Every structure is written in structure tokens, then in C-alpha cells.
Amino acid sequence: MVYLTFDDGPVPEVTPLVLDILRKYQIKATFFCVGENVLKNADLFQQIREEGHAVGNHTHHHLQGIKTPNKTFFQNIEKANQLIGSKMFRPPHGWLKRSQYREIKKKYTIVMWDVISCDYDRTLTPEHCFCNVIDFVRDGSIITFHDSLKAQKNILTALPRVIEYLLEQGYTFKKIEIPKTRPLISTPWQRQLQELRENISKRLKWA
Ligand SMILES: [Zn+2]
Questions:
Q1: pLDDT tens figures, 82-110
Q2: What pLDDT, in 10s, does the model give residues 156-187?
Q3: How many Å lie between the centroid of ligand 1 and the Cα of residue 110?
Q4: Which residues contact 65 (CB under 8 A, 6 or more apart)?
């Protein structure tokens, strides 16, 4: 089982086509939306939700945490939250200051990834992006694509190929859902670590 995730949208040039692809294969995925894009394309955001996909917060202006003062950064996340209303947060570029991480995790589950297609890199071909995914994917992987203009050239060709390849390999696809009682564990080794911790705490309880 794997999780497909799409960052930076919604945009009218790419997001509807991604939704078409997901509908064709009956796959539910997770969209980490940028607040200002949600504002501009409210109908598309609505469509993402109506089609049963999960949504997460990717800040209002796609701010990079390490380059942004904390107060500005937190306000930007909250501004996006007013539009997106999700308990999941993914930091743009995958970077956060430790102080930001500590604050954000009080309210959100921070969702990173372990496989990235690099579809935003225009010097790469769709073939490269396909290989970036299939070379590293494993059970439980969170795979990242981008429904953005930058990625348009690559994603629309690479995504269906990735899906067909993974279906052939026997994978199923799920959207990310935050359990009410337990934090989401994002990669297989983190899951193992969590299980180990739980076993230890169980043993301590019975000791
Ligand atoms: Zn992003």
C-alpha cells in the first residue's frame, strides 16, 4: 500500500487533469494545498474534496520555514487553515526550524514523504520522474508529486505510468487519514520504531 500526495495546487492547468487520472484508476490521494491557490481556485478545491480526496495545509504563500520568522510563518499557516481546515501540515521544501516544528506539531500532524518524483524539475524528463518513484518505492511509502505549473511537463505523463506500474506490482493506494488517537507514522522504519516504543511501554506497564 502506498500514499500518493500532490503539493502546491490547486491550479486550473494541472489539478483537473490529475483528478481525471485519479478518477480513472479509482484512487484516493492527498493534496497539500497552498492557501492562495485555494482562494483563487475555490471550485477546484471543492472538487478535490467532493471526489473524496484528503487535503492538507502547505502554508498560504508557500513560505520556506527556515527563511521565515516564526511569527510570520505561523500566521501564514493559520491563514491557509481558514481556507483548508485540515489537521495535516506539510512544510514547503520539506524544511522547518526546530522551534517551528515544536510549535506546529501541537496542532498539526506534520506529513513528510519518503519518495519524491522531482516532477517540478524541468531539466528532468517524465521517464526520470517515473524512475525516481519506482526505484525507491516500498510498502507504506508516501510519494510526492506536484499539481503545479512547474511540474506540468512531467507529472501528466509520469503519474499514469507510476500508477500502472504500482498496480501491476500489486500495490493499493490510500489517502492519508489522521487517526484520532495516534500520530501518523510516515515511513516504514518510523512505524517499526513506534511499534517498538509501544511494546516497551506495554512491558513496562505489566512489569
Ligand atoms: Zn511545495
A1: 999 999 999 999 999 999 999 999 999 99
A2: 999 999 999 999 999 999 999 987 665 555 66
A3: 14
A4: 73, 91, 92, 95, 96, 97, 100
> 3: buried, middle or exposed (CB in 10 Å: 19+, 13-18, 0-12)?
buried
| Ligand 1 center to 42 CA (angstroms) | 18
Which CATH number applies to 3-206? 3.20.20.370
- From the candidates 53, 58, 60, 146, which is the catalytic residue? 146
Which residue out of 7, 8, 119, 147 is catalytically annotated?
7
Q: Model pTM? A: 0.86
Instruction: Give distance in angstroms: CA of 89 to centre of ligand 1.
Output: 11
Phi-psi region of 200 (alpha: psi -120 to 50; beta: other; left: phi over 0): alpha
Distance 168 CA to ligand 1 centre (A): 29
Q: Is 119 a catalytic residue?
A: no
**Catalytic site includes residue 58:** no
DSSP 102: H
| Burial readout 88-115 (b: 16 or more C-beta within 10 A, e: otherwise) | bbbbbeeebbeebeebbeeebbbbebbb
